[in-house]
Every structure is written in C-alpha cells, then in structure tokens.
Model the fold of this input.
Amino acid sequence: MNEKLLSVKNLTMKFGGLTAIDNLTFEANQNEITSIIGPNGAGKTTVFNCLTGFYKPTVGEMLLRKEDKTILLNKFTDFKIAQQAKVARTFQNIRLFPAMSVLENLLVAQHNELMKASGYSIFGLLNLKRYKDKEQQAVEKSKYWLDIIGLTARADDNAGDLPYGDQRKLEIIRAMCIDPKLLCLDEPAAGLNPRESAELNKLLKLIKSEKKIGILLIEHDMSVVMGISDHVVVLNYGKKIFEGTPEATTKNKEVIEAYLGIEE
Amino acid sequence: MFSEDLKKNIKDSLFTGLIALALFFPIVGLRTEIQKEGLYIDPQWGLTALLVILCTVGRFLINLNISRKRKIIFVSDFTSNLSKFFSGKGKQFAITGILFATVFPFLPFTDRYILDIGIMVLTYIMLGWGLNIVVGLAGLLDLGYVAFYAVGAYSFALISTTFGMSFWACLPLAGIFAAFFGILLGFPVLRLRGDYLAIVTLGFGEIVRIILINWYDLTNGPDGISGIPRPTFFGLEFTNNPKEGTEAFHTFFNLEFSSIHKMIFLYYVILVLALVTNYFTLRIRRLPVGRAWEALRENEIACKSLGVNPTNTKLTAFAIGAMFGGFAGSFFATKQGFISPESFTFIESAIIVAIVVLGGMGSQTGVVLAAVFLIGFTEVFRELEQFRMIAFGLAMVLIMLFKPKGILANRQPTITLHGTKK
Done:
C-alpha cells in the first residue's frame, strides 16, 4: 500500500450563489495516479485551481504530506504553492512561453533554485563559478527530461514552434522540473491522437514509477484514465458521486448514468 | 476604350487625390504669416497642388503595380535581409559600432553640430536600452518612461546645486532615486497589463511633470533649475578661467582652450553610460531574473504555476529600467546645465517607446538602428522645418507597414544546448 500524500477534506468552493464544489472529500496516494472525472462543469478544474492556489476555497482543508510533515495547502497562495509546497500543474489550454526556446522554458521552471544560486542576480552578474555550475546542473536536469520525451534535438527551438503533442509533453516535463511532490494534470490528452496519447501514458507511468510523487489527473479520454489510473474520483455538479478503482468505476450505475453513458 | 481595371484605378486615384486635398489644404495650404497689422493668411496653392498631384500619381502607380501582380517588396526584402544580415553577426556589428562610436568625435566631418547630434542619439539609445528592459523583455508597456528621466535629472540638479556634490557622486544617487520611483509606479500597476498599464504609466509621467511645475519651493517650477555643475575630468574643469586653486583641462594637458573638449568629453561619458546599460542588459537577460521577465511577458499564469514571484519580477524590471532612465536624466542635466519641466513632456516618452517598438522589441541592435533613424533623420530633415514631423511620421508608417514587428525582430535564445545555429 502506498503512502497517503494528499487529503482533501470537506472542500467547498462557492462563487456568489453558485456552489462549484460541494463538500468534497478524497485522498490521493504517493506513486499513484488519481483521476478526477466527471461531465463538463462538474467542478474538476475548480478543484485543481483550489489545490494550486489560484482560488481560495470557501470551506475545507487540503493537507499535503511533505517529507515527514503535513502542511496545509490553504495557507499558500498564488505562486507560493509551487515555490514552497511543491505542487505543480499543467493547464487545459497549454500555457508555455511560446517565444522562448524549449530549454529556456525548462529553466524558468527552475527559477527559484537558480535565483538563489545567482545570489539574486548579484553573483550572476559577476559571472561567478558558483552560479555557472548551478546553471549547468539545471541544463543537465532539463536534458534528462528532454531525453525522456525525445525532444533533445529541438531544445533550442521556440516552444511555440513544436507540434501540439510535443507542447503537451513539454508542459508536463516543465512542471516536473520544479521537483514537485504533487503533479496536477488538467486534461493532458486533450487534442492528442491515439499514438500521442499512448506516448503520454508511457510518460505518466514512468513518472509514477520512478519519481516519488503523486499525480492528480483530470481527463475525458477514458483510454488514458482506465489505462493508467490507480484510483478514480467521479464528480457531478460539484459533488463526489463515486470513488474507487477504475474497474469498479466502470461498473457503478450512478457513474454510468451521470457520465460514462450506457453502451447500447 | 479603357479596361475595367484602369477605370477602377483612375477612380481610386482621384479619390485619393480628393482625400489628399482635404488633408493638405488646411495643413499646408493655409499658412499664417505675421505682419505689422497682425496675422494674415498666405495661401500656398502651388505646394498644395503639388502634394495632391503627387498623392494621386503615386496611388495610380501603386495600383498599376498591384494590377500587374507585382508587389512592392523591395522594402520588406531589404529589411528582412537586414535582419538576416545581423542575426548571428551581433558581435561583429557590436564591435564595428563601438569602434565607429569611439573614433566618431575625431572624424574629419565631425563638427560641433554633428557631435551634438551624436550625443543626442546616444542619449536616446541609452534610454531605449533602458526602456527595452521594461517593454521589450518584461512586456510591460510603459508610456511614462520620461518620468524617470525627469527624476534622474532633477535629483542630480537638486543634489548638486544644494550640496555641491560632483556629477560622478550624484550619478548613483540619481539612479537610486529613479529606481525608487520605478518601484513606486510598479506597486499600483502590478495587476495591470496591456492597454490599462499603458494608460496608468502615461498618467504617471504626466503627474511627475505637473508636480515638477507646481512644487515651486523645491523645483523652482516652470523656471527650471540653472547653474547645474558640468562634469569634470577627474576634477579638471572644462573652462577657460578655472576657480582659484584648481586647474582646467586644457592647461593640464597643455592644449589650446576649445569648447569642443567639453563636448567630446560629454560624448564619451554618454557612450560609456550607454555601453554599460547595454552590457548590463545583455548579461541580466541570461540570468534567471531576465528569463523570468521574458516568461512573464509570455504567460503570467504559467509563471505563477512554476513558482515565479510575479510581483518581485515586475518590480525589478521597473526599478532597473527606471534606474537607467535616471542615469540618462542626470547626464542630460549636466550636459544642458539647465533643466525645466518642459524637457520632460509626453512626446519624449513617445519617442523612446517608438525607438523600442520600431527597433524590434527586445532587440538591442534594433534600438541602435531605430534611434539613429528616428533622431538622426529628424535632424537631417531639420531644413524641412515644420514638415519634419511629417517625415518622421512617414518613416514610422513605412516601418510598421513593411516590418510590423520592428526592424530587427529576431530573438536569440539566452542559452542553448547545441550551440548557436548557423
């Protein structure tokens, strides 16, 4: 049994009179992929936005295990979630830095470490060795990830010039470059062809098995969800309607009615 | 008799002529002259007719070309060749440029007037490079950059006239003051982007100018500050009759006194200041903070999701950009010896932004070309008197037509895995 990584308790998010998430409680384990599925407007992305500090939840607690401590994610706002709590995310509509090169994209993700090494730019301006070594390390780390997704050859091209599928993968490894504890992927397979989604499955499985992190996944592509998830949470109208293994999910009557549909 | 195309063309050209007439008649045709009895109108029929005919015929020829499916591509060809020429040759260009700039004061054709233009162009190049940090790298459209120029100039003028400090001692202080104002402006506009940011910064520039006019006790209001000390060459003054106990530059070096010495010295001061700005920008672009600026320009939300602090990043961009504006401002004050709020109007900001945008956002070489083009050419066209601004506008329209991204729009990655591409 894998260690518990994230536990969300009684999470509620209200926008005026609209309750986007209603009393949601679920858990996610380390070295596992937890999928959040549900129809459009069920509140999946809102859960992500709460977890990654873009929204402040109305009620509820989000606890993350980091090393031996448990930290309360609610405390961190905005960029601090990524900087201090080490929760990384990708976006439904890809958000790369299109006019910057692939390598630069990955280096921006290592901004905080590099910033420290550059002595908040002072040592860097003086071109000290300490900073140069750190930068070399950062490049090595980027190269490690680029090798995995097979984009090393295009490292110096603009990120915006990559094909769509590669951009998706780049966004994922860019998130991995912050050394996250928890990786939140918002529809990573959207717009990918079957071959590309198979490659994505491979990448996610590799991250899951080799890195000590947990993955949260929002996805509509059932081949991805069923292929790689260890645990599935089903949302409908902001409420959790089911939680369990992928096999159990496909058999649950309520889930079929609300989301999966009945096969004729 | 006429083909359909030709008919259309003639109609179009005549219409263009009509618009030209409507525009040029009030602007060019009605010139006011001052006589003893007061103003009277001196109609310029010949000139107006010439301009209208020029527009009509020009339009006709352009249409003729288009109908023959021949595009006028020479300008865009020329500029893209220019981009190609400069890409990867940044170093060669920089070395040639610096060499030329270094020997410029001693070239045979360089007289006092041309040297003065050189100083002005270099001041604008420095301002352009400073603003390039804010606009080109961080993507924050700042229309009030002249405010920092003014803060630098006034802080230098006030400190030096009040406490008698020298130019070199005041320069860092002026930079710090300007950087402080940069942060002051930065805080309220952190959440703003694009058009909204442009409007607020524009307002900020005007506020600073209006404070300078109205705070009579401190800034001497519209009368300005005079008697600002000139820079000294390691304590040697550029004057014919130095103070008791001090030596002047020309006696120390056994030269005949000439006022051009001071100009040449000022020229080298601004050259060094500008080169420092450039070197600093090129270096900081390769540092994490520089990459964070560019990332912020590209996508702010993604920056946040990667743990980049957008507040600090933006404020450093504003502060550092403002600092260089402040340096340039103190140089301006010491060069002129007199400053008043009139030197810091919106048109200055507009020219600096134009230099950055026309040069190609973020391109250091582009800023040089654009500054030489915009400042140098307006001087060349000085003989056209009031039509100078038309030439200026025409140049800008042409660049925007053929090179909407600026003269040099190539961005070089700050770090490469496989080395520079050929």
